[in-house]
Amino acid sequence: MTIKEQLIREIEQAPESSLIKFMRIWQLAKQSSFTAISAEDWEQHQETLFVLQNDDLMKQISRSMATHEQRQGYQPSKGEMDEILSF
Predict the structure, then answer these.
(1) Could you tell me if 70 and 76 are in contact, meaning their C-beta atoms sit under 8 angstroms apart?
(2) Are 64 and 58 in contact (CB under 8 A)?
(3) Are 28 and 34 in contact (CB under 8 A)?
(4) Can you give the pLDDT at residue 36?
(5) Helix-, strand-, coil-residue percentages of the chain, each rounded to 5
(6) Does the pLDDT of residue 17 top 70, yes or no?
(7) Helices 39-53 and 55-69, interaxial angle, to 10°?
């Protein structure tokens, strides 16, 4: 079975919501070049996008960076540091 035949078979068996998602991806792929990435990389990209699109998380990161730069953030205890640094 060729790749094209496999793809057609998968599309025919896919639920409608998956087909809609596939069509969006296909439209984007036709408009620009794309690269195949591993499932692990895809998940990492999705997590990054989730954080970047979440206003509350971005504000929390911003506040954390400010307190870190001012050295006013949370200071772990010696025991916590030993646990963190003992891989």
Answers:
(1) no
(2) no
(3) yes
(4) 76
(5) 75, 0, 25
(6) no
(7) 80
